[in-house]
Design brief:
Length: 294
């Protein structure tokens, strides 16, 4: 609040505030509205709603934040459904996350077919389902030395996941590349063939769009967010936590690899999730706020 007061003194009162997540940015935006009369828009991203992680006081604050917001936005239809119990009589708009498709571009050279590389990039926590992916990879390709899996990211599950690959005798074909920079993530996508996100819960899945923008078909789970944009034109959907089903889809993705056109995958990402595409919807919201103030 002190910083905001300083800002107002120097630049004048803002027309609006756009907060991301009720806890805690939305709470601050609501206080700014009370003190300075600044209307706010709220975009929600959190998985806490589906995981029921709120304490009683946080749930009360969240309801208050939603109630006082000019507009509430969810980044996916699944998240909108999760938010509905907090908002009874108001419409929740769905506006997806925007992705820098200029940065996540097509590779300059053709991707190598051997070894065929499945890639997953995530924090290594139980929620991301990497153990399910490793078991499915083993089931699908235990005899194929020309097919590998790369897991990028760090987290508390890494030690157990590495031990799992040793137990399954596939440690030589599952690479843990650790925490990568943004540039390294892009480079890793450029040398991969299929991207996999085996999460139990996702409100959106930005990394899937980044993969599509680099020309990679994707495999994702029906875990809340990916259902909005993953279909058989760009990849595959599977139920979360199902090793057998994921193994089958891994084999299908490998067998059908030639049907995906990298230019069409990139075009899909650009048309639907670029800053140009998404900011238009956000600016429409801002205009409604301004019109309401006149």
């Amino acid at each position: 609040m002190r910083l905001l007061a300083t800002y107002i003194k120097r630049f004048g009162r803002p027309d609006l505030c756009h907060a991301h997540n009720a806890i805690w940015a939305g709470t601050v935006a609501r206080e700014a509205k009370k003190r300075f009369g600044i209307p706010y828009v709220l975009t929600e991203h959190s998985t806490a709603y589906r995981r029921n992680l709120f304490r009683a006081y946080q749930e009360r604050l969240t309801r208050e934040v939603f109630s006082d917001a000019f507009e509430v936005i969810a980044v996916s239809k699944g998240l909108r459904s999760d938010l509905q119990r907090f908002i009874q009589d108001r419409e929740i708009r769905v506006i997806p996350n925007m992705v820098n498709v200029d940065y996540f571009s097509l590779p300059e050279t053709p991707i190598e077919e051997k070894p065929f590389r499945f890639l997953s990039v995530s924090v290594l926590t139980q929620r991301k389902g990497i153990d399910i992916l490793i078991r499915a990879f083993h089931r699908a390709f235990s005899e194929r030395e020309d097919i590998v899996l790369e897991v990028a990211g760090e987290g508390p599950e890494r030690g157990d996941l590495e031990e799992l690959t040793r137990d399954l005798k596939i440690a030589d074909r599952v690479c843990f590349s650790g925490l990568l920079t943004r540039e390294q993530v892009r480079e890793t996508m450029w040398r991969s063939n299929v991207f996999v996100l085996a999460s139990h819960i996702e409100t959106f899945g930005v990394v899937l769009i980044e993969a599509l923008a680099t020309g990679l078909p994707v495999i994702a789970t029906r875990c809340g967010g990916p259902e909005d944009f993953v279909d058989d034109e760009v990849g595959f959907l599977v139920e979360p936590g199902n090793v057998s089903a994921l193994a089958q889809v891994l084999k299908q993705a490998w067998a059908e690899r030639s049907r995906f056109n990298k230019y069409r995958l990139r075009e899909y990402a650009s048309q639907n999730f670029s800053s140009v595409a998404v900011s238009k919807e956000i600016c429409d919201t801002y205009r409604r706020v301004r019109c309401n103030q006149k």
